[in-house]
Design a protein that fits this description.
heterodimer, A: mainly beta, seven-stranded mixed sheet, four-stranded antiparallel sheet, about 50% strand, globular, B: about 110 residues, mainly beta, about 0% helix
Chain lengths: ~120, ~110
């Protein structure tokens, strides 16, 4: 069974540009969550999509948005890039909502997309 | 405020030695606690998931403990190997309305030296 895949793996952009990252979950998984990871802040939750609907959202500005398609694949978009957006962006998939009451609903993470903003 | 704090921030041990990583949380109401291992440049991989009623759970050389009364968890690594060098992240699930919310610790960076 293939794991979570993310594309591209590395990306270099300049300030003011926009970027779209892609995540393909494990087959059969319906939930996709996005995280930003920086050395200083650790893992920060961005948002979670389930059945094409955003179900949960972290404390990030509106420049960060996402969507999920009918095949559960998800994209994340960041507009008007800032230097501080440089980070590893991780995607995780699970069968149900990530933090569902079922304690064994495990999240599987992808390898991440390393975004550098110059 | 619900928080997850991990200690130490970083740790260096010699190959073959044991070590214990700590996770203290103030999350309430509590649902479950997870430990992840993250190798440099890669996504986190789940090691254990424990509910309120579980005190200990093992995964090979990794043993996690949970004391729900004191809101503390530990991850014990036995007979460390060079491949154990990674960041270890503690994640606590908070029951919040119709679904739970995941709260991440900042992680402990472990370096195993030969």
């Amino acid at each position: 069974k293939a794991g979570v895949t993310q594309t591209p793996r590395y990306l270099i952009k300049t300030r003011g540009q926009q970027v779209t990252l892609s995540c393909s979950p494990i087959s059969g998984h319906r939930s996709v969550s996005w995280y930003q990871q920086t050395p200083g802040q650790g893992l920060q939750f961005l948002f979670e999509y389930f059945s094409e609907t955003q179900r949960n959202k972290g404390n990030f500005p509106g420049r960060f948005s996402g969507r999920q398609f009918s095949n559960s694949r998800s994209e994340m978009n960041v507009s008007t890039l800032e230097l501080g957006d440089s980070a590893l962006y991780l995607c995780a998939s699970s069968l149900r909502l990530a933090a569902t009451r079922s304690s064994y609903n495990e999240q599987f993470f992808g390898p991440g997309t390393r975004l550098t903003v110059l | 405020k619900n928080q997850v704090e991990q200690s130490p921030q970083s740790l260096i041990i010699l190959e073959g030695k044991n070590c214990t990583l700590q996770c203290n949380y103030t999350v309430s109401p509590f649902s479950n606690l997870r430990w992840y291992k993250q190798d440099t440049g890669r996504g986190p991989v789940s090691l254990t998931i424990m509910t309120f009623s579980e005190n200990t759970k093992s995964n090979g050389r990794y043993t996690a403990t949970l004391d729900a009364d004191t809101k503390q968890s530990s991850l014990h690594i036995t007979a460390s190997q060079l491949s154990d060098s990674a960041s270890y992240i503690c994640v606590v699930s908070e029951r919040s309305g119709g679904y739970n919310k995941l709260i991440f610790g900042a992680g402990t960076r472990l370096a195993v030296h030969p």
